[in-house]
Specification:
By secondary structure, this protein is α/β, with parallel strands linked by helices. The chain contains five helices and four strands. A two-stranded parallel ribbon has the order 1-2. A two-stranded parallel ribbon has the order 3-4.
Length: 135
């Protein structure tokens, strides 16, 4: 939410479109075991993740609205079965014509605060002709 609040306070909300995006990787990649899961388990994994993230995406949209972003300027997308979270995020931003990708840091300690996470690092390497903010 820090990243959402940062964006909401810094940009001209009447001129920008905001896309909230979450990526769910396949179960076998997330757990690290291949070919042990049937399609039903995969769908349960996706449904479980969606139930967890959808309220957070709604909360993020509410934060943006409170900072003055019109509701029709906010979209929410959950990408499923993506191998690379970073690649999916960059592809989505390119396809939607976004000029900036904003990423939050999760679980960064004081010692680690000068380093980017794996997804953030990959996004900064892959995002051509876009700004990348890591908050």
């Amino acid at each position: 939410m820090k990243a959402v609040d940062c964006v909401g306070s810094l940009v001209n909300s009447s001129l920008c479109k905001f896309g909230l995006c979450h990526v769910i990787r396949p179960l076998e990649i997330q757990i690290g075991l291949k070919a042990l899961f049937n399609p039903t388990q995969e769908e349960e994994w996706i449904d479980s993740n969606k139930k967890e993230i959808e309220p957070l995406m709604d909360e993020a949209a509410d934060h943006l609205k409170r900072s003055g972003v019109p509701g029709n300027h906010i979209s929410k997308t959950i990408l499923k079965k993506e191998i690379s979270r970073a690649e999916a995020i960059v592809r989505k931003a390119e396809n939607e014509g976004y000029g900036t990708i904003v990423l939050g840091r999760r679980g960064i300690s004081v010692v680690e605060e000068f380093f980017l996470g794996r997804v953030s690092t990959k996004v900064t390497q892959m995002a051509n002709k876009m700004a990348v903010w890591v908050v």
